[in-house]
């Protein structure tokens, strides 16, 4: 794993916020509580957790045009924010959350590989802090967060299995994947693809072992941040 740091309380107004740094990938994560739910959830007695994701124009080595200026989100952005939302929901008892929505915003300040994984990991910290406020205020009586949720990338680079790929590794990896897991080691989602080489069952098993190791380190960092 690259060096991990999570600084909480980095914005004034959000109910939960953190800056997560995984190597040179830096993501600002904020969580906003709203006393409403989407129309399809009304009168269900259940809450909703959703996410939005974006990259600043100079998060990468060349300037990207703002998606707002283009008038629509790109397919990559939509895919990533859906992944973040469903990953975080997998660790939430939405009945215990009550009929309210928490939106987790993940803004990439600097990108060097693994931005979606850092967003999920930091997004859970922001969500945890927001839920703590609900519990402290007595708005909910049962903790709706079932387990920490974190994510890490793994791949095969130069013939070797590698944990937590940075951009140069990611861009040249023959196989790369993202592993989303709970703090108990249960899988939420695995995204694996052969980018230039196929891979064996044994290599997949090794990547799973690396993912277990990486997620356990991320969860320890999450717990320390919210302690």
From TrEMBL:
Entry-linked InterPro entries: ExoRNase_PH_dom1 (IPR001247), ExoRNase_PH_dom2 (IPR015847), ExoRNase_PH_dom2_sf (IPR036345), PNPase/RNase_PH_dom_sf (IPR027408), Ribosomal_Su5_D2-typ_SF (IPR020568), RNase_PH (IPR050080), RNase_PH_bac-type (IPR002381), RNase_PH_CS (IPR018336)
Binding site for phosphate: 76, 114-116
Domain Exoribonuclease phosphorolytic: 1-130, 148-213
Keyword tRNA-binding in record: yes
Pfam families xrefs: RNase_PH, RNase_PH_C
Superkingdom classification of source: Bacteria
Listed Gene3D superfamilies: GHMP Kinase, N-terminal domain
EC id: 2.7.7.56
Family: Belongs to the RNase PH family.
Subunit note: Homohexameric ring arranged as a trimer of dimers.
Protein name, per record: Ribonuclease PH
Organism: Sinisalibacter aestuarii
Name of the gene this protein is made from: rph
